[in-house]
Amino acid sequence: MDCKSSDTDPGPRAEDQLPHTTQAAVKIVIVGGFGVGKTTMVGSVSEIRPLTTEETMTQAGIGVDDDYGSDSKTATTVAMDFGRIGITEQLVLYLFGTPGQERFWFLWNGLFEGALGAVVLLDTRRLEVSFDVIGRLEERGVPFVIAVNSFPDAPRYPVEELRLALDLAPEIPIVECDARRRASSRDTLMTLMRFLYGLAVSRAPV
Fold first, then answer.
1. Which pLDDT does position 94 carry in this prediction?
2. Angstrom distance (rounded) from CA 203 to CA 20
3. pLDDT bracket for residue 84 (50, 70, 90)
4. E runs forming strands in the chain
5. Residue 26 vs residues 18, 42, 74, 86, 143: alpha-carbon distances, Å
6. What's the mean per-residue pLDDT of the chain?
7. How far apart are CA 24 and CA 167, in angstroms?
8. CA separation for the pair 2, 157 (Å, rounded)
9. What are phi and psi of 150, to 5 degrees?
């Protein structure tokens, strides 16, 4: 039997192929607790059709999955979200959104592997959800920025008050973000890239 691909095999879609000018690709993870907007951010900013692994939340999840009081949340990521965005003609970011439910956190180790940095999405209505997330990044030495997702009914706090509550070092950026909007999500990623560049410069040998 001839195992060669047929002439009718369409192959990758044109919009999914890397631009020919690409010289470097960087892995970035989007992390946070359940329902903070990780899937939304990846979907809003990705230049390719994002890959999602959302499954419907069912009665079987009661007592296992936590909806954190969200009556409108009907699906949850069970593996990862994936997207891609070009920052310049030469630099591409691969975006990996982590699952928020605690029972899927064992997948995080693989998603963190090789990541240059991370965006921690924050919901100010549930600050405590971010404590373990930040702790895991710090344990693995993954640099990160904090993005406060703009939920309509979420309380607003001064940046330094948030920094104190999260026990963050003074150099870690904290920015506001609307994960639904491409420009806002892109600005957040640019903040991370500038932060990573600053770290690289400061650690470079004189």
1. 95
2. 31
3. very high
4. 24-31, 54-56, 75-77, 81-86, 91-97, 117-122, 144-149, 174-177
5. 13, 15, 32, 10, 13
6. 82
7. 33
8. 64
9. -90, 85
